[in-house]
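Let us practice reading a record.
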Amino acid sequence: MTPKIPRPHRHDVLLAVASVAVGLLLWVLGVHSNATLRLLPAWAALVPLVSLGAMELLRRTAPRVTLAVGTVGLIADQFTVGNLATVLIFTDLMYAAVVYGRPRMARRLPVTTGLITVAVTITAVAWLRTPQSLLIGAVTGLVCFGPALTGATLRDHREAAVAARLRAEQTALLAEMDRTQAVGAERARMARELHDMVANNLSAIAIHSTAALSIDSPETSREALGVIRENSVQGLAEMRRLIGLLREAGGEGEPAATPSLDGLAALVEQASVTGSASGLEFVLLDGRAAADDGAALPAPVELAAYRIVQESVTNAVKHASPGRVTVRVELSDALLCVGVDSPYGPGRPGADPRAPGSGAGLVGMRERTELLGGTFRAGAEDRVWRVRAELPAEEKAAER
């Protein structure tokens, strides 16, 4: 199968036609570059002219071939009466060979033509020994070296422009990737915050509303409604805090308050009220006081620890069997350890959850811990569901 020859560019077609037409006009008018040379008939100057004009059609697609044919045609033109258009066409073929040729040829042609120009100049001066002989070298430079140098300069500018455009596209792509990752990370953070904020309160509301509907007792219903109201108010406050966190300021223009470990006592007390109807007793064992060295924990560490305890307590309210739920907080060797032990834990045999869940609690706790460079474990041991999180209590670890 013969290869398909690409069609010439329309600009090359116009250039070929115009070049040959100008050459024919000069020949008709008797304008020759070597008028005194009569080795061949005058019409012989048309052969190099037409040959080089035809090469203009291939200047983009076959620059090596056009340069070879152009060089032979230029040499042949020197043995005729000559045509200025033939010389001009050769300069364009030299320029096109550098611009559209392979990189290796584009690098070599300026050097080669420069050496040829120097060699011709030295030879002409040594042979003729007249100042006018320098003109031969100058003409050689204009015909060979000048177009090659111009083409090399243009090609360098084009390659630099392409490289700059590629770098700009890569920079834009990296910026878009960074933006996408930042948006994804922010969405994950918002999802964790939203889940941890409302899950505890909504679980308590679901449990006590079920009790109020299933037990026909005014006193029980009144107590359940009180717990529901308290958790509704707290859930609303948490939602407002989340909105303030997203806006980076509270309603008074101050930074939104972030939960800390100092609020664990209130959290455990609330869980005791919520879980009392299910036979659950919550106990807080805070060992920070014994190891406190006066240095405050980083805010991200305190927030993560608080949320882990909050989610674990919520899971205990929904899944644990009647019994004692123990919340432990310890600080030692620049390491903050929080743990929650609940009877039986999730998936206790023969019982359904007291409130529906999304299943994202353990994932969120693990993500919070890993983001701070800590370790997280959760699982059943000896009929007890144990949750353990170890968080670095140093600022550099918290900001990782």
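A brief commentary: Residues 99 and 156 are 9 Å apart (CA to CA).
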